[in-house]
Amino acid sequence: MGRKKSSRKRPATQPTTFVIDENDNIGTGDADNDFAYLDNSFVNERNLDLLVDTENVQHIILGRTGSGKTALIKKLSSGNVNYILLDPASLSLNYIYKSTIIQYFDEIEAPVKQLFEFLWIHIFTVEILRHHLSISDKSGGFLTLSRFLARFRSNSSYSRAKNYVDQFGDKFWQEVDENVQELISRVDARAEAKFGINKDFLNLRASGGANTSEQERRELNRKATELISGQQFAELDHLRKIIREEFSQKMQKKFFILIDRLDENWVDDKLRYILLRSLIEAARKFVHIPNLKICIAIRSDLYRKMNEETNDLYSQADKEKQYVINIRWTEELLEDLIDARIKSRFREKYRNKKVSLRDLLPSHTIDGEDSFSFIVNRTFGRPRDLVNVINLCLSLSRGKAVLTQEVIRKAVNENSYNSFKYLCDEWKSIYPNLKDYLELLKKKKDHLKFEDISNDQIDHFALNSATRDDKKKGPLHDSSVAHSEGKVPIYILKQKVLYHLYLVGVIGFKTDSFTAFRWVNTDREPALFEEFQSAEKLQIHKAVHLALGISP
């Protein structure tokens, strides 16, 4: 898939003194279950160094499923005892959707991003101070906070920061989920006092007994940002400035807030993307505090979907480039990773023997490719992919000392079906109908052009896409509807469909005969649609060839 053949040579042949047995594997590729391998087989040191460096502003970890985001978070936490791991599922953020005012503002589409941003900043501030000052109980917590603030009496932010602590300081000892509920309850109370909105009002509306005029809707939209007063925002900001001064001291240890698992069911889908956008913008406000870093791991597809849903696809993505670490794996790094796991596994079995990846691989090429390159080029080039294939090879090689060409072919063929299934699962939040896209490629040649996808196929795709219900709408629903109404030419819709297959990694393209194929997994940034439209040739990724019945 456009990768260079490995230049590494097989080590000199040594006597066969080991054998593969039924228990041999190199882990799961899942950082949650790979504790031993995480310690002795971690190779992504460059990205880890960027995260650990609190003077480096890069703190958003982007990568596909199985690319090593969680491994980075776990490796960082294992080397730094001064950290907080914020599990989104434990924050009680679904409590937000039970809020009277949030339900109402969602109904009238009022802006609530400012409220959510304030919520995240409040969470970060409380957690930083609670852990930094070892606040664990109500009786001593407020006194500890007061003594801490007293050290900054000469700071211009002191009085306003103290006002905020006077309002919320008696709750700082609580766990983070309790603080979330406390803050939302206060917002509800403020909404009832300011707007007269309570559960009785919502029940009346639900029964048809109250309506909101367009003029009232505009007025409530305007007032939505007043739920959190400008004064509270300012006071919280001054408390953040006090934290900055505290963490600027020379002897201050590094402190990390780590956030992972944002792709799991931690909040109602109606709030997920606006909460994610608010989280990222809130974390950015802490970027320039010395010795402190808020690290956020997020799937690339979820990040893109968030930007689409919050209308920030290009504006925010461009601004945030400087804060992002894109996890990308070269073939060399992948070989280092698998080699380290092989050595670790066989070191446990044969204390005095060294067994490397190249000891197991056949010395000859497979279809003209280096044996490891052959494997890599038939996966999507992520650690989990390679771990799965090598484990399949080991399971098919019991009683042997090497992985034969036949075994490797069987393993990559079986993995092709797995890749198809994992691909649909990985992208289901954005492409609930991804199988319809992939269906267009079945039984095609691995190299093709736009015209190799027939107009009848696109018409059929458009009909299916346009008639799906709301929960299964994909990104091309509107274009499909427009095509059925004669507003989008069929060749444009065809290009859009294939472009989205490029975005999920299934198709590569080249715009002339002199350059290599471009793949989203190896591009520094995804190509724009306008670039893709100039493609002369397309190529279907070998990882899904067998599953799609692709012929060379």
How would you characterize this protein structure?
This protein is an alpha/beta fold and 552 residues long. The chain has three domains: 69-326, no CATH class; 329-419, Helicase, Ruva Protein, domain 3 (Orthogonal Bundle); 434-548, no CATH class. Helix content is 51%, strand content 6%. The protein contains 26 helices and eight strands. The chain has helices at residues 35-40, 45-52, 69-79, 94-97, 100-107, 113-132, 138-150, 158-168, 176-195, 199-206, 214-223, 230-247, 269-284, 300-309, 315-320, 331-349, 357-360, 371-376, 383-395, 405-426, 434-439, 455-466, 477-484, 490-503, 529-532, 545-548; strands spanning 60-63, 83-86, 255-259, 292-299, 324-326, 447-448, 507-510, 537-540. A five-stranded parallel β-sheet has the order 2-3-4-1-5, sandwiched between helices. Helix 8 (158-168) crosses helix 12 and helix 22 (455-466) crosses helix 24 (490-503). The model has no long low-confidence stretch (mean pLDDT 85).
Brief overview:
With 552 residues, the protein is of the alpha/beta class. It has helices at residues 35-40, 45-52, 69-79, 94-97, 100-107, 113-132, 138-150, 158-168, 176-195, 199-206, 214-223, 230-247, 269-284, 300-309, 315-320, 331-349, 357-360, 371-376, 383-395, 405-426, 434-439, 455-466, 477-484, 490-503, 529-532, 545-548; strands spanning 60-63, 83-86, 255-259, 292-299, 324-326, 447-448, 507-510, 537-540.
